[in-house]
Amino acid sequence: MLAIETSCDETSVAIVENGKIIRSNVISSQIETHQRYGGVVPEVASRKHVESITWMLEEAVQEAGISLQELSAIAVTEGPGLIGALLVGVVAGKALACALDLPLIGVHHIAGHIYANQLVHELEYPLISLVVSGGHTELILMEGPGQFRIIGRTRDDAAGEAYDKIARAMGLPYPGGPHVDRLAQEAESEIKLPRSWLEADSYDFSFSGLKSAVLNVVNQSKMRGEAVQVAQIAKGFQASVIDVLVEKASRAVREYGAKQLLLAGGVAANKGLRSRLAERCEQLNVPLLVPPLGLCTDNAAMIGAAAFLKWDKQEFDSMELKAEPQLKLEEW
Ligand code: ATP
Ligand code: MG
Ligand code: FE
């Protein structure tokens, strides 16, 4: 299967066998382009995808050492994401499927993040997925392959978005998540910040209050003419985010009798989160599945892995497939 991912600021093309074996996974990040604006500029992202997609298709096929005639299907992220960015991938996918007379499979980007785990682990259901990415923070109950029931979600900012926003306020480069993670590991002391638990039985999340608390600390230092304690703030912020994620995820594992806890999305690359979840899962005696670091952030191999769910059921899309910026996971 050839898979294409262009939902945000990574252009990626992969060749994946049986939803499990990566033959190639070419990723071109636009981070340097967007860095000077402090975040992704949608129109610039679309144009960059257009520039890269053709040579990346060629490179992915070449690296896999296959001919186009050996392909069985074309998979492409149909949503959610930036409309202009998604369109580039969807049009490329349709063109290839049409030219090669192959089935087309539209894939939900978050299903991709979750099924990145299938490239390295055996999934056992029921499982709980904790999705933490640039645009999503969700707890998802999965009772079988491709069955997604969202039991909790963020009511405001996504975890990755909060990381990026507080990093920007402290003058760190975009994307801020990895920088905050590194500083949090290095700092010896932390600035205490609030935890947002919401109602006792809720699996929802909220990070905007925490973000405002960080901004207040930063602004107070600036007003007093003092240096911003970037590392101590990073440590306090990360501790607050992780406490809430770990607590709610493990409560869900117990309540639903999950056989595994699966971590997915860009923030799954966070060292603090990985180690705290691993500790907790050991206590719970439930395996923790995490993707390898390189498969946490956006890539097309994960799209090929998720597409296999549809291939298995021979559920294909027509040439009417549309880019859906707001595509719902439960309706995919
Ligand atoms: P979505 O998948 O929700 O559409 P996205 O595709 O933009 O959003 P991803 O590529 O999944 O997001 O993840 C990018 C996010 O992950 C960024 O917010 C980035 O800061 C964050 N991130 C990456 N590495 C780390 C890390 N080590 N610690 C914390 N956050 C991280
Ligand atoms: Mg990205
Ligand atoms: Fe993503």
Brief summary of the model shown:
GO terms for molecular function: tRNA N(6)-L-threonylcarbamoyladenine synthase activity. This protein has 332 residues and is an alpha/beta fold.
How would you describe what is shown here?
The chain is α/β, with parallel strands linked by helices and 332 residues long. It contains ten helices and ten strands. The strands form two sheets. A five-stranded mixed sheet has the order 3-2-1-4-5, with helices on both faces. The protein has a five-stranded mixed sheet with strand order 8-7-6-9-10, with helices on both faces. Strand 7 and strand 8 form a beta hairpin. The chain is globular and about 65 Å long. The mean pLDDT is 97. Bound molecules: adenosine-5'-triphosphate (ATP), magnesium ion and fe (iii) ion. Magnesium ion binds next to loops. It comes from Paenibacillus alba. It is an enzyme of class 2 (transferase). Its cofactor is Fe(2+). It is found in: Cytoplasm. It catalyses: L-threonylcarbamoyladenylate + adenosine(37) in tRNA = N(6)-L-threonylcarbamoyladenosine(37) in tRNA + AMP + H(+).
Strand content: 15-25%
DSSP helix fraction: 40-55%
Unreliable stretches (pLDDT < 50, length at least 5) are none
How many strands appear in the DSSP assignment? Answer: 10
Radius of gyration: 20 Å
**Spatial shape:** globular
The N- to C-terminal Cα distance equals 19 Å
Total count of helical runs of at least 4 residues: 10
Class derived from helix and strand content: alpha/beta
- How confident overall, as mean pLDDT? 97
Largest sheet: 5 strands, mixed
What small molecules does this complex bind? adenosine-5'-triphosphate, magnesium ion, fe (iii) ion
**Topology pattern, helix = H, strand = E:** EEEHHEHEHEEEHHHHEHEH
Main β-sheet, spatial strand arrangement: 3-2-1-4-5
Pfam families: TsaD
Subcellular location: Cytoplasm
Keywords: Acyltransferase, Cytoplasm, Iron, Metal-binding, Transferase, tRNA processing
Catalytic activity: L-threonylcarbamoyladenylate + adenosine(37) in tRNA = N(6)-L-threonylcarbamoyladenosine(37) in tRNA + AMP + H(+)
